[in-house]
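Structure first, sequence second, as always.
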């Protein structure tokens, strides 16, 4: 479980979480994020029995910090949208819209009074709030937009100006990634983005053509961060390095490092909008941060400018920067070469298995495969080197910087000899 808290708090929480499965997850190696993310990720949810839940996630690592289970709402939740940290809108199967006022702290989740009925006729199958005054919903494939004028709306006087954006929105999920921006996945696995203009018009972009069909629930706290929950209850996180480019080619996939491998049994989840901010980065650390101590990263290679990092077979290996993948063999065994967008060539040697296709483009931090002992190797390790114009440059300084979370110096300025520090 990727939860960090004191032992007394953790013990008390796990006793409650086991009843819904959130205590039965397995540990996953941490992957360096492709950018520096700050803020918070607050996710509200509803269980099948009507109980409210709250989870907090660290945006830069995908670690779940805590999960709290609250009281029964008193009705069966159908759709949910988070307006702010203390206010959630929830509908029931009969189309009644409720405002749920929440009170939470590190140890408990409660309600400030019973849910308040503020409307009827809300037969939407999905609801989401964009953080900038617009509530979106779908009903029968029609996308609808409403203006929310109060932080705690009391009725139609505060939620109105209904606009029918368009039809054909037959979507598996719906979430907001920012101001009048929506993301969704479809049953056939596409990941889509929608942008709605001031007149109610819209445009769409396909971020991924396939691979997203497993997610039954999808949320975003902004910053290009996407969180998906599978039918099996696993929550996975993704980072769109440039969420403004309308392309998913730079989405970093953390499939080997889920928030939780199982246990997300909520029938609904909803993220507080625009609470996370990410600053794009061009480089990422090549291993899970806990794979080896920092002190192991200043060792020289035994005969030239490179480094051999002793890690067990099966340790996830990540792309150091954006570039194109090619396969190399020979003494490197199952080797991968990244022809970086920065003009440098990065070599990963002796992998037990490759996890990306030759010719594909990878983003910083993207999973490449797993370390091993193939080729001319005397024991399990990762061989890593940097070449510029065929000249090898010492990678130790770059790895230390990435481990410390600071911007590394340009590859071309790294020395070509004397590689220990």
């Amino acid at each position: 479980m990727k939860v960090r808290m004191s032992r007394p708090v953790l013990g008390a929480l796990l006793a409650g979480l086991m009843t819904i499965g959130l205590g039965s997850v397995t540990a996953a190696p941490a992957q360096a994020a492709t950018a520096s993310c700050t803020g918070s990720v607050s996710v509200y949810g509803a269980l099948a029995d009507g109980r409210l839940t709250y989870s907090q996630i660290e945006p830069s690592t995908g670690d779940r910090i805590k999960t709290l289970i609250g009281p029964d709402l008193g009705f069966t939740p159908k759709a949910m949208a988070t307006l702010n940290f203390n206010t959630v809108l929830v509908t029931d199967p009969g189309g009644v819209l409720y405002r749920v006022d929440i009170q939470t702290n590190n140890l408990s989740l409660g309600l400030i009074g019973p849910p308040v009925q503020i409307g009827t006729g809300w037969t939407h199958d999905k609801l989401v709030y964009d953080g900038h005054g617009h509530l979106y919903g779908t009903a029968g494939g029609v996308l609808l937009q409403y203006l929310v004028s109060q932080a705690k709306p009391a009725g139609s006087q505060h939620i109105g100006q209904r606009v029918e954006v368009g039809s054909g929105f037959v979507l598996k999920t719906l979430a907001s990634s920012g101001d009048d921006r929506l993301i969704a996945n479809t049953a056939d696995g596409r990941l889509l983005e929608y942008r709605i203009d001031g007149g109610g018009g819209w445009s769409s972009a396909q971020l991924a053509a396939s691979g997203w069909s497993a997610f039954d629930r999808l949320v975003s706290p902004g910053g290009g961060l996407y969180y998906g929950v599978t039918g099996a209850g696993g929550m996975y996180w993704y980072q769109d390095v440039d969420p403004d480019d309308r392309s998913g080619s730079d989405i970093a996939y953390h499939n080997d490092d889920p928030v939780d491998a199982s246990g997300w049994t909520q029938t609904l989840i909803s993220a507080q909008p625009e609470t996370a901010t990410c600053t794009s980065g061009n480089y990422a650390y090549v291993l899970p941060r806990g794979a080896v101590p920092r002190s192991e990263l200043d060792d020289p290679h035994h005969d030239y400018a490179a480094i051999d990092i002793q890690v067990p077979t099966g340790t996830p290996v990540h792309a150091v920067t954006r570039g194109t993948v090619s396969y190399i063999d020979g003494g490197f065994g199952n080797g991968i070469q990244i022809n970086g967008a920065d003009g440098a060539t990065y070599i990963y040697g002796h992998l037990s298995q490759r996890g990306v296709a030759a010719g594909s483009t990878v983003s910083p931090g993207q999973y490449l495969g797993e370390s091993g002992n193939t080729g001319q190797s005397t024991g399990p390790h990762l061989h890593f080197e940097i070449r510029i114009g065929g000249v090898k440059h010492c990678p130790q300084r770059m790895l230390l910087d990435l481990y410390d979370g600071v911007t590394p110096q340009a590859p071309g300025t790294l020395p070509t000899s004397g590689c220990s520090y």
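Margin note: The domain at 294-413 is CATH 2.70.70.10 (Glucose Permease (Domain IIA)).
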